[in-house]
Amino acid sequence: MEHGTLESCFGETTLPIKDPHRLQLALVETGGDQQFLPWKNGPVPQDLEILMKIENRISLVEEILNARKLEMGNDYPGYKNHVYRMIHFCFALYDCKSEECEKIIIAGCFHDLGIWPDNTIDYLLPSIALAKEYLTQNGLDHWFAEIKLMIDMHHKLTPYRDEHYPLVEVFRKGDLVDFSLGIVKCGLPKSFIKRVKERFPNAGFHKRLVQLELGWVSKHPSNPLPILKW
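RE: above sequence
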């Protein structure tokens, strides 16, 4: 089994494991002299399941979304928690380098943000425009092509296949796990999804999406779901 080098996490020594499904796993050496016996003849008990790290606060998320807080009004807590949940699902699905993590965070913050300027469910192009503005202001125009795809394809119903842009599919899956309320897991442990949802409550986010969808359908019955792609 391939592994990385020893690291320190939450005060414990850990050994990152390179999982073929790109889950972020690690062996943990706990302090003390307590001895443990191996388990046999079955899956790892749930109470011994390896825990994936949850970041309670990501400064870049706070910075980007706080600038839009007034515009989102009462929807702000729900959307921010949605962003945190789907970002964590992406990180658990893919072993990201630092730059890839930043791309996921930026795309995560902007992927639905086009909802609020026009109060619309047809928000992909407005979200892409807001992301482009941010990238230009921060000297990151060279990331735009990839982040545009991440946002534009995040409601694609079938896998996105492009070896040059693997984050597009990671992002699609991360959002799908949360959009489906964890019913679709994309290989993530049920217990991890539960912990993320508990740490970042829904706060009415999905209810708001339903309200927007009903308002859209009443005016555009021939195009009920403009954000979906095959």
